[in-house]
Amino acid sequence: MALARNAPNDLDAFWMPFTANRQFKKNPRMFVAARDMHYTTADGRQVLDGTAGLWCCNAGHCRPKITEAIQKQAAELDYAPAFQMGHPVAFELANRIIDIAPKGIEHVFYTNSGSESVETALKIAIAYHRARGEGTRTRLIGRERGYHGVNFGGISVGGIVNNRKFFGSLLTGVDHLPHTHLAENAFSKGQPEHGATLADDLERIVALHGAETIAAVIVEPMAGSTGVLLPPKGYLEKLRAITRKHGILLIFDEVITGFGRLGSAFAAQHFDVLPDMMTTAKGLTNGVIPMGAVLTTAAVHDAFMQGPEHMIELFHGYTYSGNPIAAACGIATLETYKEEGLFERACELEGYWQDALHSLKGTRHVIDIRNMGLIGAVELEGIPGEPTRRAFTAFLKAYEKGILIRTTGDIIAMSPPLIISKAQIDQLIGTLGEVLRSLD
Ligand SMILES: Cc1ncc(COP(=O)(O)O)c(C=O)c1O
């Protein structure tokens, strides 16, 4: 029997995440179907997906291979206990991930989301030092304007004031590097020129606390959620050199940049900087089934492999770590990326995407445009005294005109599925231009 899902009659019970609930429920925006580059709305309109859902559907929507893999797995082995038991699909996926990961990354710890990947990586970092006899290394360093999900570790190392200020004292022993978003880099194409020296601030933090108290630095190689903030040339290399010099682990949060967004499997390869751990989620399963993974070097993993063999080495894990259906979904997703050459496609389209985005320079209210791979941001001048309103109005108008964009503050961010065509890039940017010109 078909469920009456297209037209819910009561919107009250569902408390929606990161949403203006009252505003939404007065005028709901509902998607009821999706295929490839498009969503279908409840009123039957097609909306071009300019954001890959929430930066996650890198292969587009309802891809047959992925759908079939989930159906088959659900009918064969729906669940197996994640602790002290295994099933082949999770092992297979781990190997496939390592196949495309940077050389030197050798192990996979499964989670169910980006937020959980971050918590897992932070815990592994602290426990790693303890396992090696350096139990004083407990401090964690994040960065202003960083987004690392919504759990306590993630918001503590994260740098978004609204995500932090309502939630008490957070984790103690956390410091923040300055963000890398500099006015002099406005309208940069690709990596900006200025700001590598911002990484030197880590030396200041080390001098303040002593390296022997610091466990890890976590940064997004390219900050997505706070508006596509790119690493200045040389910045990540410097961060790597300073962390290595002081025995501090470097964690790249690749929840957005992983799985092709910048034209390589991971940003670590794109920038040729090897971290000690990488946090992933989203594109791992094309956003279809919740799953995340922390990827580590052999050195991090091996530090735990000591003591009696019957003892659990890491007291951490989730009921759904490596869930069979999620793992089957992950394998089918990675196969889709490979068979369709989607990471290469992102690379090939980068120039076209960049030109299209930067054609908006000079459009009303636009104060900056930045891009890399198949990701881009258009920053608007905010309405005085009403931050976020202008971009949010643009989002609503864009939706009415048939394109899905995302806003954060007064920044419009776009990250289309990697299957987007040039004509669809023209449609996305052309429609956005119309929307911007129509704003007050
Ligand atoms: C860099 C980064 N880390 C962590 C997260 C959190 O992921 P999730 O929403 O799956 O918990 C996100 C989500 O956008 C992210 O962009």
Automatic annotation (TrEMBL):
Keyword Transferase attached: yes
Position of the signal peptide: none
Pfam family for this entry, one: Aminotran_3
GO molecular function, one term: transaminase activity
Gene3D superfamilies assigned: Aspartate Aminotransferase, domain 1 (3.90.1150.10), Type I PLP-dependent aspartate aminotransferase-like (Major domain) (3.40.640.10)
The family this protein is said to belong to: Belongs to the class-III pyridoxal-phosphate-dependent aminotransferase family.
Protein name per UniProt: Aspartate aminotransferase family protein
Species assigned in the record: Tabrizicola soli
